[in-house]
Specification:
alpha/beta, six-stranded mixed β-sheet, 14 helices
């Protein structure tokens, strides 16, 4: 404690008045994190203790926005488990991005009654272009670094999906596609890998997006999961040597549309028996049996099942422990729901940069939340055998 008091006294004596408050906040925050990590590990930094619960594993840098200015923090990392300081606000960046979008719309003269009401509800008034510029520049720098970072290691599973938002272009309001990619690496961890904006989900757009991911280092992809939008399957074939999984949830919606109101429940129960099989061959046999049973009365539906069999059952050839997460784009649904919730507040974006700013900030925050979760998305024991990297293997079990 004496050393800490001396450090604090030296800080007060040497730091200029303008920076004193910010430095003191940083000092207190760092000490608080050290105490919290000490409680998690059961030992102080560098202490040899036989009752230690976990080992430290370096630090990760994080900028903390306070009213006194930006405080640079070094957040301790653990070899087992995770640590995230409770005093940080995990949603702060995206909320600032949302504020920036509304401010930008206001400054550019696009304000409507709804935007004015939102500005007042957020407690903003007298917005200047210089304020908007500073705020946007700070967010854009972080989002750009995140969306263009190198992708390292093998990524056996890749989910891709799109959502639509409205933006002003050349005096018109148009709808554009925001596509997002999420992957699971050979360590069983889930990350947001990228996003892009385009006029539609055409094959050329999907191909360019996937090639951009590949240039950043995406490799080892075994299975790509998406809906059956035109162009996705062709783009996947062009860029990756991977299997394509048609989202089972989207497929069932199409099936029930063919079944008619009276037969939906029966058809749904029939197809569920194929999904309940233990292996791929048994699932295919049951699938053909269902199609043949439906063929006399519902020939169009039977043909639909024939054509979709390979793509809908693709996930059955992968480890059984992963299948519940592989058969659909559901792992992306919660993320898309959060994006929709935020973008609907804005309504019409003033430009595409504003879309990247807000959606990119949301993705960055979600990625941070996944990074500090204690449990892997998929266990190391089940994911490691899928890797193309010979150096990735499980430790040998002593006999």
């Amino acid at each position: 404690m004496t050393d800490e008091m001396m450090n604090l006294r030296a800080l007060v004596e040497k730091t200029p008045d303008a920076d004193l408050l910010r430095e003191m906040i940083g000092f207190a925050a760092q000490r608080l994190m050290d105490l919290e990590v000490e409680g998690l590990t059961g030992a102080a930094y560098g202490e040899k203790n036989p009752e230690r619960l976990a080992q430290r594993n370096g630090y990760r840098d994080r900028a903390w926005e306070t009213r006194a200015g930006t405080v640079e923090l070094r957040i301790p990392k653990l070899r087992k488990g995770s640590y995230f300081p409770g005093f940080l606000e995990p949603r702060r960046i995206a909320e600032k991005a949302l504020t920036a979008v509304v401010q930008e719309a206001y400054v550019q003269g696009i304000s409507t009654r709804s935007v004015d009401d939102l500005v007042k509800a957020m407690g903003m008034s007298g917005i200047s272009k210089s304020q908007v510029s500073r705020l946007c520049e700070e967010i854009d720098e972080k989002v750009k670094a995140f969306l263009t970072r190198p992708i390292e290691g093998d990524w056996p599973y890749l989910w891709i999906d799109a959502t639509y938002v409205k933006v002003r272009q050349n005096g018109r309001i148009v709808s554009v596609a925001v596509i997002i990619a999420v992957g699971v690496n050979n360590d069983g961890r889930r990350e947001v890998l990228g996003m892009d904006i385009g006029p539609s989900e055409a094959e050329t757009f999907w191909t360019a997006f996937l090639r951009k991911l590949a240039r950043r280092g995406l490799r080892g992809v075994k299975l790509v999961i998406s809906d059956a939008h035109e162009g996705i399957k062709a783009a996947v074939t062009k860029v990756f040597s991977a299997t394509w999984q048609r989202c089972r949830v989207h497929f069932m919606r199409n099936v029930l549309a063919h079944a008619g109101r009276q037969g939906r429940r029966v058809v749904s129960a029939f197809i569920a028996t194929a999904f309940a099989q233990d292996d791929a061959e048994a699932a295919r046999v049951q699938w053909r049996r269902i199609a043949d049973q439906l063929r006399p009365k519902l020939p169009k539906l039977a043909t639909f099942l024939d054509e979709a069999e390979t793509d809908v059952l693709a996930y059955m050839t992968f480890p059984a422990q992963h299948r519940v997460k592989l058969h659909s784009t559901n792992p992306l649904e919660r993320l898309n729901g959060e994006i929709k919730r935020r973008t609907e507040v804005v309504g019409i974006f003033p430009n595409e940069d504003a879309i990247v700013r807000l959606v990119g900030a949301i993705l960055l925050e979600q990625n941070d939340e996944w990074a500090v979760q204690r449990a892997r998305y998929m266990t190391l024991e089940t994911i490691a055998p899928l890797s193309d990297d010979p150096t990735v293997s499980l430790p040998a079990i002593a006999s």
